[in-house]
C-alpha cells in the first residue's frame, strides 16, 4: 500500500486526491493530512482516513518533519507561495513529490531542483499540461525534445474586447469554460497569468529554453499539451478535462489504473487551435519577462499577483488592475539572487507590501 502525505487536503486537488484513495482503498492510504484554514473539512477527512498526522496550519505551525517522515508520495497541493516551504521539506526528506503547487517552481525553481538533486527526491508534475508533457516524454524529464507546446483554454474572456475586460467582475472571471478549479487559479486562467506560470515551470521541469516553449489556445481542453521532436514528429496527450487523471497518475506511474471515461473523438468532432491573444492579456508577457530575468523576479511576479487577485475577488480593483499591480512590482523592486529560501521569502514579502500600498493606499 502506498502512503500519501497530502498538503492542501481541503482544496480542489486535495478533495480529488481523496476520491482516488476512496476508489482504491487497497492501493492508497493517507499518512498525513494538512490544510490551510478549513478546520471542519480537515476534521471530517481525519475521521474518515485516520492518518498518523493531521494539522490545520491556521491553528498551529505544521511539523514539517512529521508530515513527510512516513510517506511514499508527498502530494503538494497547498495554494500560493506557502507551498514552497512544504515542497522544500518533502525534497529534503528525499520523497517522490507529486507537485500541484505551481509557485514552488515559479518562485523557487532553481533552489527546488538543486535540493532535489542533493537529496535524491523525485518531482512528478500534477498540472494537466505538465502531466501531458511528462507522459509524452515517456515519464522521463531528461528526454530530448525540440519544442514544448502548452495548451490553454483561453479562459472565460478569450473573445472579449479590452473595453469589455475593464468591466468584468470576479463573478464573471470564475465562470471557467472547461475546468472546475479554485478561485485563485481560475482568475489566473482568465488573465493568462497561469499559462505564464506554466511556461516558467516548463523551463525548470524539462530544462527547456524559453525559445523552446510555446502556448496556444485550445478551447475544447482535450489536447492537454504536445511535445515536438527533432524529426518533426509531435506526441500529444488527450483526454476530457478532468484533473482526476493527472492526480492519480502522479501517484501510480508508471502503472495506470482505471479512472475516467475514455475519450470519444467522434462525439467531440473538431478540435480548434489559435494563437494566444497576448496583446489583450499582458499578465502572460509579464510572467515571461520575470522568468527570463530570473532570480527573485518570478517571486515578485507571484506575490504581486496573489495580492492583486485577492483584491479583485474582493471587488477592490478591476480586472485590468491585476496586470498593472504586477508590472508596478516588477518595475520598482530590484532583482536579487534566488539561491536560498530566505532571499525568495524576502522578495515575496517586499512585493506584497508594495502591491498592498498600491491597492489600498497603506
Structural notes for this entry:
This protein is α/β, with parallel strands linked by helices and 362 residues long. Helix content is 48%, strand content 15%. It is built from 16 helices and 11 strands. The chain has helices at 12-23, 39-49, 64-68, 83-92, 102-119, 128-136, 162-165, 170-173, 183-191, 193-206, 244-252, 265-268, 282-293, 297-313, 319-332, 341-360; strands at residues 2-7, 28-35, 53-56, 73-76, 96-99, 122-125, 147-152, 213-217, 223-228, 234-238, 274-275. A 6-stranded parallel beta sheet has the order 3-2-1-4-5-6, with helices on both faces. Strands 10-9-7-8-11 form a 5-stranded mixed beta sheet, with helices on one face. Helix 5 (102-119) runs parallel beside helix 10 (193-206) and helix 13 runs antiparallel to helix 14. The longest helix is centred in the last third of the chain and has 20 residues, at 341-360. It is globular, with a radius of gyration of 20 Å. The model has no long low-confidence stretch (mean pLDDT 95).
Amino acid at each position: 500500500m502506498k502512503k500519501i502525505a497530502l498538503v492542501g487536503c481541503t482544496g480542489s486537488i486535495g478533495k480529488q486526491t481523496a476520491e482516488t484513495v476512496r476508489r482504491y482503498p487497497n492501493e492508497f492510504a493517507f499518512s498525513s493530512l494538512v490544510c490551510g484554514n478549513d478546520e471542519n473539512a480537515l476534521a471530517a477527512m481525519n475521521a474518515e482516513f485516520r492518518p498518523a498526522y493531521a494539522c490545520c496550519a491556521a491553528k498551529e505551525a505544521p511539523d514539517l518533519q512529521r508530515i513527510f517522515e512516513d510517506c511514499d508520495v508527498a502530494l503538494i497541493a497547498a495554494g500560493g507561495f506557502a507551498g514552497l516551504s512544504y515542497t522544500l521539506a518533502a525534497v529534503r526528506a528525499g520523497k517522490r513529490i507529486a507537485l500541484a503547487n505551481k509557485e514552488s517552481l515559479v518562485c523557487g525553481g532553481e533552489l527546488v531542483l538543486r535540493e532535489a538533486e542533493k537529496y535524491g527526491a523525485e518531482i512528478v508534475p500534477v498540472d494537466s499540461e505538465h502531466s501531458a508533457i511528462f507522459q509524452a516524454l515517456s515519464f522521463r524529464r531528461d528526454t530530448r525534445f525540440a519544442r514544448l507546446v502548452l495548451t490553454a483554454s483561453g479562459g472565460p474572456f478569450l473573445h472579449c474586447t479590452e473595453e469589455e475586460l475593464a468591466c468584468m467582475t470576479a463573478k464573471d472571471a470564475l465562470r471557467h469554460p472547461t475546468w472546475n478549479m479554485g478561485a485563485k487559479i481560475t482568475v489566473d486562467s482568465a488573465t493568462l497569468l497561469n499559462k505564464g506560470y506554466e511556461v516558467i515551470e516548463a523551463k525548470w521541469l524539462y530544462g527547456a529554453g524559453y525559445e523552446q516553449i510555446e502556448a496556444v489556445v485550445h478551447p475544447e481542453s482535450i489536447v492537454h499539451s504536445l511535445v515536438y521532436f527533432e524529426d518533426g514528429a509531435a506526441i500529444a496527450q488527450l483526454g476530457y478535462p478532468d484533473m482526476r487523471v493527472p492526480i492519480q497518475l502522479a501517484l501510480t506511474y508508471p502503472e495506470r489504473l482505471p479512472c475516467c471515461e475514455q475519450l470519444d473523438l467522434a462525439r467531440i468532432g473538431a478540435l480548434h487551435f489559435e494563437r494566444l491573444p497576448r496583446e489583450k492579456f499582458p499578465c502572460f508577457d509579464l510572467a515571461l519577462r520575470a522568468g527570463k530575468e530570473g532570480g527573485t523576479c518570478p517571486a515578485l511576479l507571484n506575490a504581486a499577483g496573489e495580492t492583486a487577485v485577492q483584491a479583485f475577488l474582493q471587488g477592490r480593483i478591476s480586472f485590468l488592475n491585476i496586470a498593472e499591480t504586477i508590472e508596478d512590482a516588477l518595475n520598482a523592486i530590484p532583482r536579487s539572487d534566488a539561491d536560498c529560501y530566505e532571499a525568495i521569502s524576502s522578495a515575496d514579502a517586499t512585493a506584497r507590501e508594495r502591491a498592498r500600498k498600491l491597492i489600498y493606499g497603506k
